[in-house]
Amino acid sequence: MKDKVFGVLQRVGRSFMLPIAILPVAGLFLGIGGSFTNTTMLETYGLMGIMGPGTFIYAILQVLNAAGSVVFDNLPLIFAMGVAIGMAKQEKEVAALSAAIAFFVMHATIGAMINAFGAPDLSGATTTVVGLNSLQMGVFGGIMVGLGVAALHNRFYKIQLPQVLSFFSGTRFVPIISAATYLVVGIAMYYIWPTIQTGINHLGGFVLASGYAGTWLYGFIERALIPFGLHHVFYIPFWQTAVGGTATVAGHLVEGAQNIFFAELATPGIEHFSVAATRFMSGKFPLMIFGLPGAALAMYRCARPENRKVVGGLLLSAALTSMITGITEPLEFTFLFVAPAMYIVHCVFAGAAYMLMHIFNVGVGMTFSGGLIDLTLFGIMQGNAKTSWIWVVIVGAVYFVLYFLVFSFMIKKFNYMTPGREENAGEIKLYTRQDVDAQKKGAEGTKGGNSDDALSAEIVRGLGGKDNISDVDCCITRLRCTVKDGAKVDQAVLKATGASGVIVAGKGVQIVYGPRVSVIRSNVESYLANYQEPAAVEAKTEAAPAVKGGMVASPFTGKVIPVSEVGDGVFSEKMVGDGFAVEPDDDKVYSPVDGEVTMVFDTKHAFTIQTDGGLEVLVHMGIDTVQLQGKPFMLTIRQGDKVRCGDLIGTMDRKAIQDAGYRTITPVVVGNVDDFDTCQLVTEGQVEHGTDVLDVH
């Protein structure tokens, strides 16, 4: 039951991302338009003659202001459609249309009930929703419509009606059943919602009365839920409903912290933005602009000297992402999985950041996250008198030092393996690692041999295969999947696809890839849509000789060691197969077996060969060398080529690899070793290329 609830909450959380994604653009319009149509600001900077009322620029800015305001004014409808799209399994456009219809029907029904039987005796109970007199349900009303319509859609979009009504079968039935259902819901809400609204108002009053301690708790929980992907479910009620407070702005009752801030932003004459509202937002600024970059510096300084050049570039990129856009997961997940205690400290600091912004009366709001863009638009440009934004910088400077000192101490004290502290450079990564370390059974179902298909195949295999996957979606940084059997998920395979973290909770799976995840999701969906059963491979298996297996030779002249001694987690722990590794003495690479080339990576750093004896042999030249984009490698083979053991098939520029900070040691593994009885290393130490090293039978 717990896993089912978690899975539902995860899907609800990701369904919020589509409507949330429009907020930065709407906020940008409103921020620019609201700032530069404020006559007080224009007079202060002497811009009345250029940008004041009556000028062309002023008119354009008013257009921007109106364009931003209309989005925030209609968020309930946007959430209704967005949640329906996010929760629908197929035919999502039908779900969106049905949600809009249901939303109109519900509020029109409530309006008709108010006209017929009177409004509830509750202060601020009614409002205008898309031009209709209705109850003040806010975003809760939109979410309720979106979830309900999605449930109806998933149940009925394939329905078959009797022949006489067949025109209304399938997707045409969904808007009909949605409209009918929400007519009934509208009647019910007329009687039920005032009681719910009273409860929400009491909850909002409790939150308001909780003071600084409540603000700290909010910040702590919001960060603590990020690893589970449930933080959107947590903060949306505070930002968009009366849980986050109510205020009368320009004569209108406004609910929700973010809505209050943007209503005040669009209203001239506001002396200081409501801190009671911005207490749920302002704390992110010192955390994201200053604190996490301090953590990045700590990880850089604690890295081994020989690794700092590589890790410095990765951490700098992640720190700038946090500072500018407020997207923090690349940095947070870097230390979450190697040092959970550091993440707990991070959550404590997050709560304190929110509390300090509350204490210092900081009134800076945001659209989506607390980066420099939002701080500039909604803090600096609005003036310190209205926002007290200078405290963000003061507290932020302290946070930078605090994060640096505390994280440095913890990393050294407990020897946490943050990026660059490993004994080899092959493990250095944050959230990007395009190297697919193993091309095994999953890739056989693809139509082509490109790296996108190969990556998608490995992800599908890691999720337990196509038949185990119920749903694939994503948020900003994570691939979010629902599977039929969580026990079939192979976290090692998923991590080998470049994920910086994998979270499995029952049937819900989250795979952290960073901002490139939307492309990965599209590729996986395309792969699943075009998936073909590997019939050709099955035919090969049937025709395989009675005696399977064989010998695997060294592809290089050099020193052979067991694969367990490579020092790279993926290979050392035999996540992608068993075998050996060779440290080359020269640049020439030879085929280690007789067989057919089944995969050549676009970056030329790895290839696989299938032998007549059924061995699937992966040769991976160097560790993490996919980052070099193929520059040090030259291969003369292509997918489908027949090769013999000892054939010269390419070169590897060892000096170029070493100069770039990577290792040249080359793992050679049998990916399907579990299909055989024995896998034994017969030779170690210095060998010539073509020397038999591994016996698999």
Structure described in brief:
With 697 residues, the chain is of the alpha+beta class. It is built from 27 helices and 22 strands.
Describe the structure.
With 697 residues, the protein is α+β, with helices and mostly antiparallel strands. The protein has five domains: 11-73, no CATH class; 75-193, no CATH class; 277-427, no CATH class; 441-533, Glucose permease domain IIB (Gyrase A, domain 2); 548-696, Glucose Permease (Domain IIA). It has 27 helices and 22 strands. The strands form six sheets. Strands 17-13-14-15-19-11-10-21 form an eight-stranded antiparallel sheet, with no helix packed on it. Strands 5-6-8-7 form a four-stranded antiparallel sheet. A three-stranded antiparallel sheet has the order 9-22-20, with no helix packed on it. β7 and β8 (508-512) form a beta hairpin. The two termini are 45 Å apart. The model is unreliable at 431-449 and 534-547 (pLDDT under 50).
